[in-house]
Amino acid sequence: MRKLKFILSGGGTGGHIYPAVAIADELKRRHPNAEFLFVGAQDRMEMQKIPQAGYQIEGLWISGIQRKLTLQNLAFPFKLFSSLRKSRKIIKNFQPDVVVGTGGFASGPLLKVANQKNIPTVLQEQNSFAGITNKWLANQANKICVAYAGMENFFPKEKIKFTGNPVRQDLIEIAHKENEAQAFFKLVPNKKTILILGGSLGAKRINELVEANLTYFEENSLQVVWQTGKLYFEKYKKYQSKTIQVHEFLNRMDLAYSAADIIISRAGAGSVSELCMVAKPVLFIPSPNVAEDHQAKNALSLVKEDAALMLKETQLEEKFQQEFSALLNSATLQQKLATNILTLAKPNATKDIVDEIEKLIKK
């Protein structure tokens, strides 16, 4: 049989990179002899993360358009022309069977060229509000895999497949890891544990909220696993104690989720999909500093299903203790949120996406 070839493109943030790697891993599992190439933006995090995952990557000179007039915006037409030209060269040399885009600006020129060459393309949209690049590519894509209902507002209805977002497979078994999790984090049994997540770099407002409420957490006999992020760890590590654990990163997210009774988190698409699998009560604090306020839209899609709570950053000082206490003191509310969020989980998302890719190969 002829060796299959796949190009995957997506990056700028972990939310675009992780789904691309998960899809590649599943394709590789099914087709061990296949060849893979990733394409990203030459100065973004994918240029390090993809080789760490074991795949080759090519970089394009591309970036997004800023919302105000900048020198970077003036350079955009030149970057786009350069990226289209390099994409033509990449596709001509590699000859892929299918090209997969998971969002981020680098996927735009590459998939546009693939469409011009009549190479099948698949888009994977993580968010409830579609990104600029995927909206630009949608009309010519063969299939668009989405994680939220209502995406026909952005994409041609006949091309949409509701698959969910790829998630870490080690999350499926977290219910059986409670003892291991308590030992790993040295937690006191039968004492409620709050897990606080702000992403790999960290969330300034969430960290400030935790700092302001350390006494409140202690007065309520809570133990806290606090992931500050890379940018903030040095500032907050002084609060490390028996009941307040301060971490820069959490390398065992499966155990962190397993240990938690309640979770406070940002609402990036990947985090939301993981938390649906985890099935614990969640209070989302969306980042307001993202395109189209998509984190708030992600969180609201769960709030409308009585599957999570949400507070905006502007509400934290006024409402946090009131909302959190209501959740902490109501076993009924905790159970309702945990039960409802699990109904939104899509544990087979990666397999379902790869099924759609394989259909295009067979055609």
Query: CATH superfamily name of the largest domain?
Result: Glycogen Phosphorylase B
User: Which stretches are poorly predicted, pLDDT < 50 over at least 5 residues?
Assistant: none
| Number of domain modules | 2
Biggest sheet: strands side by side, in what order?
3-2-1-4-5-6-7
Number of helices: 15
CATH topology of the largest domain: Rossmann fold
| Count of DSSP strands | 13
Strand content: 15-25%
Q: Give the fraction of residues assigned to helices.
A: 40-55%
N-to-C series of helices and strands? EHEHEHEHEHEEHEHHEHEHEHEHEHHH
Structural class: alpha/beta
Please state the average pLDDT score.
91
CATH domain class name of the largest domain: Alpha Beta
What is the general shape?
elongated
Keywords:
7-stranded parallel beta sheet; Rossmann fold; 6-stranded parallel beta sheet; elongated; alpha/beta; 363 residues
Q: What's a concise summary of this model?
A:
The protein is an alpha/beta fold and 363 residues long. 43% of the residues lie in helices and 15% in strands. It contains 15 helices and 13 strands.
Task: Produce the secondary structure layout.
Blueprint: E1 5-9, H1 14-30, E2 35-41, H2 46-52, E3 57-60, H3 71-94, E4 98-101, H4 107-116, E5 121-125, H5 132-137, E6 143-146, E7 160-162, H6 178-185, E8 193-197, H7 204-212, H8 214-219, E9 223-227, H9 233-236, E10 244-247, H10 253-259, E11 262-265, H11 269-278, E12 282-284, H12 294-303, E13 309-310, H13 316-328, H14 331-342, H15 349-362
Parallel strand pairs: 1-2, 1-4, 2-3, 4-5, 5-6, 6-7, 8-9, 8-11, 9-10, 11-12, 12-13
